[in-house]
Design a protein that fits this description.
About 20% of the residues lie in helices and about 35% in strands. The chain is built from 18 helices and 45 strands. α5 packs parallel to α6 and α15 runs parallel beside α16. The chain starts with a strand and ends in a 5-residue tail after the last helix.
């Protein structure tokens, strides 16, 4: 008989235990529980608490983190004659004891591990009593810290003392849920003879062929001889297992293999991998995966400028256009495959080619990685140690090793995973943040980063590259976070300096940098109900987690625009400033290629509605930053950059085709008049960067009233000699025509003045509305077309409402002057034919 899987999702209940349990929760007793889930979301579903994401509810629900919770399931079972019946837990968050019919069968202390218990000897025909008792995580962390000794960290809870998602205790963008629960699936598995415990493929390329060593681990209750059959695409391999043998390696060769390529380099070809286990009578178990054949390495060979960190896939350098990924919900069990798909699609829209899974979150699900495999989205996964010193003593040491082994083996099949990284900022923390004095000789995690993790990766996934930390300086001869060596995190600008100073850096690889901005208006006003709402109103303050976040937002804005008094204007100003900051940095970093080999924006997504560094807010809506990333990460980029000898146009070609044509650069006044122009023949090789000095064309004596525009083909770059607050701008004058489009409406905007950073904040019209572009600059007489996808019935007048059509001009010259017309019936069919689809 094959393995029988029974998912235990229904009929669970949960009960709160502890002195701080509110009377209404205590009176409710056992309430229905969702599995996978959390006690907090169960309380919410039962109507016993308000949504923790709204207003000040986070503070009111602090009792949850100091409360024990007990899950119970009346488990009905009938003996089907199987040799073994196992209880399998894919994730318990975090300190828990499992009992079956009153007998303790499992104790866990690690959210990031799975567990399996042989249960048949305790099961009885009929109804069984299965219980999972969770110890309050805040108390568990405090007790663990006392046992291990206090070590530096960056939170109000000692998250580094237990193996729980660090950001679950709150972060400088994250809500403190201190959640508890059965967060991944639970199953009852019945089997006989043997089962497949693990399939771990290790693919490689030999000449034109792909070769995969398929490592198979078994669990047995019988010593009978067995047979393994492995198929990769059309190729097969077989192996007989001797009596008692519980592991084997089957090697399969795929002739003339099609390689897996990342986005922009080729097809992300995958092959089905099927493993079947039989005895002499029948199939006992089977597994199916999809694998890809690719080679990856991280090149850190020193050069004349220092030490690069260059990622090569199939021996081709890939300029990394990346974004950091955090858990997409503070309650990760709520993130399903559709949500992963939507978020990855937003990354693709922004021309991102790598997602870095940050070390204060989770080892992401196979759904996440499978979607990245399918779409050619490169990924790297941090080991889950972030911004803290970690004890190298027991019991933490064994837990960290066990979780690392399990998750490396689980993720090894995914071709998108190209880097496993030892930690986030812990090397920098030790060397730069004064940890040694505070540690006073205590261990801090060095063993994990330089010994344990690289050994595990080499043993279990040698086809995946390893780096000991981020930031990381190869060779250890220079301080961590040195821009000339390896990877850096750039945070001094957000914390202390203006974003124009990104151009003072010439880093080899940037793994983190960011600038804050508020969420979209629809998200902000759904989550916060202050009256009046303002940057300093109580609910807004709860949703700003950064240290001195308000002050830094203001300091970062005033150099560029005045601080608005109106809340809608404030949101737009801060969002635009965030987008301009990161757009400036990205274009600068790309202009340094190949000296600079990549930049990973902090951060793509949010885990709740919050003011943060994200490009997509906690409700999944696109902020202006996402559009700035789309422009700056475009495969072909025209950017104007200052150099020692003056302004220059830099052409970046991240495609496999030569890019050539006439590069035109013109200087204009703010009334649109052309002052000077030059046309040059340009030729940019594939995957190359070319710099074109502008000489006298890049010099003006009228900074407030002039600008530059450079164009090569469809790619356009701009340079404004004066920032918004100093430019001679009038309020934007716009003619707007609204008509139908597939899935929404088309909006054509024609400028009657110079317009900077035109955007349609369409979430204010309909919560589901999305525009296909933003942050567009126009000269007088020029037009831009936008497709707004929405299921709502949106008429032309909606686009004239305050806060919908925004420009940079608004912040220094007042509200735009908008004339709106509806497309005529005569042109409606032509528009519908022109628009072939929307994003």
């Amino acid at each position: 008989m094959t393995v029988d899987l029974r998912h235990l999702t229904d009929r669970w209940t949960v009960r709160a235990h502890g002195p701080r349990v509110p009377p209404n929760v205590r009176a409710a007793g056992e309430i229905p529980a969702q599995v996978p889930g959390s006690a907090t979301t169960d309380l919410l579903a039962a109507g016993l608490i308000a949504d923790p994401y709204l207003d000040d509810n986070e503070r009111l629900q602090a009792w949850i983190g100091v409360t024990d919770f007990e899950y119970a399931l009346p488990l009905e079972w009938t003996d089907d004659g199987s040799d073994r019946v196992d209880l399998a837990f894919d994730g318990l968050d975090t300190v828990a004891e499992v009992s079956l019919n009153g007998v303790s069968v499992l104790e866990t202390r690690n959210q990031h591990r799975s567990h399996r218990v042989a249960a048949k000897q305790l099961l009885r025909e009929g109804v069984n009593d299965l219980r999972v008792r969770f110890t309050a995580p805040v108390r568990a962390a405090a007790l663990a810290e006392r046992e291990l000794g206090a070590r530096p960290h960056v939170n109000h809870h000692p998250y580094n003392a237990i193996r729980k998602m660090a950001s679950g205790f709150g972060w400088d963008w994250g809500i403190d849920t201190s959640a508890t629960g059965i967060w991944r699936s639970v199953r009852l598995e019945s089997w006989s003879g043997a089962r497949i415990a693990q399939v771990r493929p290790v693919p490689r390329i030999e000449g034109p062929d792909g070769v995969v060593d398929v490592h198979v681990s078994l669990e047995r209750v019988s010593d009978a001889p067995l047979h393994l059959a492995v198929r990769v695409g059309e190729q097969a391999g077989q192996l007989a297992l001797a009596a008692g043998q519980d592991s084997a390696v089957v090697t399969v060769r795929v002739p003339d293999v099609q390689r897996w390529w990342p986005r922009g380099f080729g097809d992300p070809t995958r092959y089905p991998l099927d493993v079947a286990l039989r005895d002499d009578r029948a199939e006992l178990d089977a597994r199916s995966l999809r694998i890809g054949f690719r080679e990856v390495r991280v090149d850190t060979t020193p050069d004349d400028a220092g030490t690069p960190l260059r990622i090569l896939v199939n021996e081709r350098p890939v300029y990394i256009r990346g974004a950091n990924w955090i858990p997409d919900d503070a309650f990760p069990h709520r993130v399903n495959r559709a949500r992963y798909e939507a978020r990855i699609a937003q990354a693709e829209f922004a021309n991102v080619n790598l997602l870095r899974v940050w070390g204060g979150g989770i080892y992401e699900s196979d759904d996440f990685y499978d979607l990245c495999d399918e779409r050619g989205m490169l990924t790297w996964q941090d080991f889950l140690l972030a911004c803290a010193a970690y004890a190298e003593e027991e019991p933490l040491r064994s837990e960290i090793e066990a979780e690392a082994r399990e998750n490396v083996a689980r993720l090894a099949a995914h071709p998108s995973l190209i880097v496993l990284n030892g930690n986030n900022e812990n090397l920098e923390g030790y060397h730069e943040w004064g940890w040694p004095a505070r540690l006073d000789g205590a261990t801090w995690g060095e063993h994990y980063y330089h010994d344990l993790f690289p050994r595990i990766v080499e043993e279990l996934a040698p086809h995946i590259a390893y780096t000991p930390g981020s930031p990381f300086t190869p060779g250890g001869t220079h301080r961590p976070n040195d821009p000339d060596h390896g990877s850096v995190h750039i945070w001094d600008l957000w914390n202390r300096r203006d974003w124009n100073d990104y151009r003072s850096y010439t880093p080899r690889f940037v793994a983190e940098f960011g600038w804050q901005g508020p969420p979209t208006w629809a998200t902000l006003t759904r989550a916060i109900h202050d009256d009046p709402i303002s940057p300093v109103s109580p609910g807004v303050q709860v949703h700003q987690k950064a240290i001195e976040g308000d002050a830094k937002l203001t300091s970062g804005l005033v150099a560029h625009t005045p601080v608005p008094r109106d809340m809608r204007d404030w949101v737009w100003a801060m969002q635009l400033n965030q987008a301009r900051a990161i757009g400036t940095a990205l274009e600068h970093f790309r202009s340094l290629s190949p000296h600079n080999a990549g930049a990973i924006v902090w951060q793509l997504n949010d885990d709740w509605p919050v003011i943060s560094w994200s490009a997509v807010d906690g409700d999944g809506r696109e902020k202006p930053l996402l559009y700035a990333m789309k422009h700056a990460f475009a495969p072909r980029l025209v950017t104007v950059q200052p150099r020692e000898e003056g302004l220059a146009v830099v052409l970046s070609n991240e495609t496999d085709e030569e890019w050539s044509g006439s590069l035109t650069v013109a200087r204009h006044t703010v009334d649109g008049s052309e002052v000077a122009r030059v046309a040059l023949a340009a030729e940019v090789a594939p995957r190359a960067t070319v710099t074109v000095p502008l000489g006298e064309l890049g010099v003006t004596e009228n900074a407030e009233g002039e600008l530059l525009r450079a164009r090569l083909g469809d790619a356009v770059g701009w340079w404004f000699f004066a920032d918004l607050r100093d430019a001679a701008l009038s309020s934007a004058a716009l003619d707007v025509v609204v008509g139908p489009a597939a899935g929404g409406v088309r909006v054509d905007v024609t400028a009657r003045t110079v317009v900077r950073d035109l955007a349609l904040l369409v979430d204010t019209i309909a919560p589901d509305a999305v525009a296909d572009d933003a942050l567009v600059h126009l000269l007088p007489g020029e037009s831009a077309s936008f497709i707004v996808s929405t299921a709502a019935a949106v008429g032309p007048s909606a686009f004239g409402a305050p806060g919908v059509i925004r420009t940079g001009n608004d912040l220094v010259a007042g509200a735009p002057q908008i004339r709106i017309a509806e497309v005529s019936a005569a042109t409606e069919s032509a528009l519908e034919e022109e628009v072939t689809g929307v994003r």
